[in-house]
Automatic annotation (TrEMBL):
Keywords, in A-Z order: ATP-binding, Kinase, Nucleotide-binding, Serine/threonine-protein kinase, Transferase
Pfam families: HATPase_c_2 (PF13581)
One Gene Ontology term of the molecular function aspect: ATP binding
Domain Histidine kinase/HSP90-like ATPase: 14-129
The organism's taxonomic lineage, starting at the top: Bacteria, Bacillati, Actinomycetota, Actinomycetes, Kitasatosporales
Organism encoding this protein: Streptomyces aquilus
Domain of life: Bacteria
Name the record gives this protein: ATP-binding protein
Length: 180
């Protein structure tokens, strides 16, 4: 029996370099909370590449929404932006072997079981990738067990600072909503 057949997390942000790192940490923390530690590296790499594409290519703005959803044994990570233009995967030639860009979607394809793009007309597009979740995830609880006697974990969590006064509009903090 699966106690939590669907788990969902959404983060809205502007795809700026500083925000991309924050979202990568949010995704990693959420997967750790869901006991999906084996997927953290691949999910973090994939979401970084998708958000970097929004930062580099999306028009008219850099606003986007990142969603991660665990449905049974499949984790889907998607990024929705407002640019209706669909991405193209370039085939690399020997002349491109030293290129520093143009490999993001190829890396997403390499680390995921599947990926794709869903056009949403004037609303933009959604680029997504999927990873197979470990089989034991559905059988467990959604929360880690409590430690006895006030015992502390050895984990160190990074704190994210947000400047409140004098912050520019394009540096608005990411917003998130987590279910499950």
């Amino acid at each position: 029996m699966i106690s939590h057949p669907s788990r969902h997390c959404t983060v809205e942000l502007q795809a700026l370099p500083s925000r991309i790192g924050q979202v990568r940490r949010i995704v990693s923390a959420q997967l750790r909370y869901w006991h999906l530690d084996p997927l953290i590296d691949r999910a973090a790499l994939g979401v970084t590449e998708l958000l970097t594409n929004v930062h580099r290519h999306a028009q008219p703005d850099k606003m986007c929404t990142v969603e991660i959803e665990l449905l049974l044994d499949r984790l889907t990570v998607s990024v929705h932006d407002h640019d209706p233009r669909l991405p193209a995967v370039d085939t690399m030639t020997d002349d491109d072997s030293l290129a520093t860009c143009g490999r993001g979607l190829a890396m997403v394809a390499a680390v995921s079981e599947s990926w794709g793009v869903r056009a949403e007309g004037d609303e933009g597009k959604v680029v997504w990738f999927a990873l197979s979740a470990p089989a034991a995830v559905g059988a467990g609880t959604s929360r880690p067990p409590r430690r006895a006697g006030g015992e502390r974990s050895g984990r160190v969590f990074a704190e994210i600072e947000h400047a409140v006064d004098g912050r520019r509009a394009e540096h608005a903090p990411a917003r998130s909503a987590v279910a499950g």
